[in-house]
């Protein structure tokens, strides 16, 4: 009886190992659970490379790098998770934790309130979701116009005409939001400093004047690029050039 139990236990452990090997995500999660954060990071990177991106994968990868004290990489992946899913509260919470390790205390220049409002509103949904919303509202506007054309009651026809016009306008606005979100996802207009400390130059050349320093984990905006150099904008309005290998786009 004891021999049967032993054989059963061995078979179960072998089965579990095979299952883990056949399930890359489970393998990566197991590595993380065992404290092998470097192995987990490699595994998550491989999954993203082979199977595609997902907010949860970037979140897990950010956690692995956070445990390895790689501030730049952890912030980069939390930002990527939020780029795909702005409502990902866990990623936002961990991003704030990782941000406390950043040396640079950049005072952000507040943007115009309408710009902030538009940014918050557009990030409520992704590009595809905004497109579905736009299509749904457009169909409602068509229904309103059909009632206006074929309706019998004059008051109902007038009301349906105005409602259809409002719906058509809303459909165009939400389609515009869809375009903004797609541009945000495809544009890669933001980046994270990946090197420990870098010197921002006044021109795209090593002989350019030193303007200021930035440290690992600082988030910047990408303004333009020229060869091996990228022009960046810091949150406080500072502008300068850094080498491409010093940053990674979100």
Structure description:
This protein is 61% helix and 14% strand. With 250 residues, it is α+β, with helices and mostly antiparallel strands. It has 3 domains: 2-99, Tetratricopeptide repeat domain (Serine Threonine Protein Phosphatase 5, Tetratricopeptide repeat, Alpha Horseshoe); 113-187; 190-249, SH3 type barrels, CATH 2.30.30. The strands form 2 sheets. Strands 6-5-4-1-7 form a 5-stranded antiparallel β-sheet. Strands 2-3 form a two-stranded antiparallel sheet. A hairpin with a 2-residue loop joins strand 4 and strand 5 (229-233). Helix 8 (127-150) runs antiparallel to helix 9 (154-187). The longest helix has 34 residues, at 154-187. The radius of gyration is 25 Å and the shape is globular. Residues 1-20 have low confidence and may be disordered.
Keywords:
single chain; 250 residues; alpha+beta; Serine Threonine Protein Phosphatase 5, Tetratricopeptide repeat; SH3 type barrels; five-stranded antiparallel sheet; two-stranded antiparallel ribbon; 9 helices; 61% helix; 14% strand
Summed up:
It contains 9 helices and 7 strands; from the N terminus they run αααααααααβββββββ. With 250 residues, the chain is an alpha+beta fold. The chain has 3 domains: 2-99, Tetratricopeptide repeat domain (Serine Threonine Protein Phosphatase 5, Tetratricopeptide repeat, Alpha Horseshoe), CATH 1.25.40; 113-187; 190-249, SH3 Domains (SH3 type barrels).
Structural class: alpha+beta
Instruction: Assign the CATH superfamily of the largest domain.
Output: Tetratricopeptide repeat domain
Biggest beta-sheet profile:
5 strands, antiparallel
Indicate the mean pLDDT. Answer: 88
Number of helices: 9
Number of domains: 3
CATH topology of the largest domain: Serine Threonine Protein Phosphatase 5, Tetratricopeptide repeat
């Amino acid at each position: 009886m004891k021999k049967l139990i032993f054989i059963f236990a061995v078979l179960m452990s072998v089965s579990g190992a095979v299952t883990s090997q056949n399930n890359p995500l489970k393998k990566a999660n197991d590595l993380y659970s065992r404290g092998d954060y470097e192995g987990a990071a490699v595994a998550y990177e491989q999954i993203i490379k082979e199977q595609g991106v997902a907010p949860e994968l970037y979140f897990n990868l950010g956690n692995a790098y956070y445990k390895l004290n790689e501030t730049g990489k952890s912030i980069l992946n939390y930002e990527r998770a939020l780029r795909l899913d702005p409502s990902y509260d866990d990623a936002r919470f961990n991003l704030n934790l990782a941000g406390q390790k950043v040396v640079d205390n950049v005072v952000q220049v507040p943007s115009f309130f309408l710009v902030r409002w538009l940014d918050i509103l557009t990030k409520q949904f992704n590009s595809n979701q905004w497109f579905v919303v736009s299509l749904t509202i457009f169909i409602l506007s068509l229904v309103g116009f059909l009632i206006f054309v074929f309706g019998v009651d004059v008051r109902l026809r007038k009301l349906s005409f105005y409602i259809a016009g409002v719906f058509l306008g809303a459909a165009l606005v939400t389609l515009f939001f869809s375009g903004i979100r797609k541009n945000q996802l495809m544009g890669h207009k933001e980046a994270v400093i990946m090197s420990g400390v870098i010197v921002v130059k006044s021109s795209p050349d090593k002989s350019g004047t030193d303007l200021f320093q930035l440290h690992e984990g600082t988030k910047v905006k990408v303004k333009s690029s020229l060869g091996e150099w990228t022009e960046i904008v810091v949150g406080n309005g500072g502008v300068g050039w850094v080498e491409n290998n010093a940053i990674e786009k979100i």
